[in-house]
Design a protein that fits this description.
72% of the residues lie in helices and 0% in strands. The protein has 13 helices and no strands. Residues 68-257 form the ABC transmembrane type-1 domain.
Amino acid sequence: MKAGANLYVGGGIILLIAVLAIFAPLIAPYDPVTSANLMYAEEPPGAQFWLGTDEQGRDIFSRMVYGARISLFIGLAVQVMNTAIGVSLGLSAGYIGGWWDEMVQGLTNLMLSIPTIVFALALMAILGPGLLSLLIALGMTDWAYSCRISRAQVLTQKSLNYVQSARTMGFGPLHVMFRELLPNIAGPLIVVATMGVGSAIMAEASLSFLGLGVVPPNPSWGGMLSSAREQLMVAPWVAIFPGLALFAAVLGFNLLGDGLRDLLDPHGKGRK
């Protein structure tokens, strides 16, 4: 019951955010960038501006809706990059073994010893702010978990009959790894990837908050929180609503990943 509730609640939250992001031009009543009007600066929530306005008179609801596009795109793109790197290294390390396995394990341990945000900050300092730099920095910093999990799964699977049969039939290592092993270890990787999207969204917001993410005036939840620091006492809604959106997105992906974990775990029902 708990697994189903987490799955449905998390999926519902993500579906709502995805609908807002996809249909942003139809849903947002104002342009998120060019609608600035100082006459309406720091207007409280009301009939004209549902969630109020910021210090430049821009509609917060419109900027949040368009910001959902950036957050979802970055979260999904970064996690695709992390999963591709981690799974490729983990599959090859577990299957090939030897010196390659030792080298991949050493690199994985090194990545796990460095906080993700610190490594991303170092890369962003080199690459400079911007969307492409953000994707590269985050896409190269959080693959270690996928690598470790895929390697552990391969070590338990590669001695099973279906792998031995594929080898006997003459299939090469790439076929065995990606056509035989990968589909059979996909369950835990899907869970890690789903939860990783929420982590990537949070990392993007952190970097944007520090001024190293999405370049203003493009709307970003982290950037909106950063610009709201000086207005927090006089116009708290400028920070409250983007913060709630960020919280909802991360919570949604975590609940979805938790529900998928219980659903894909063959022993989950027995524990409950």
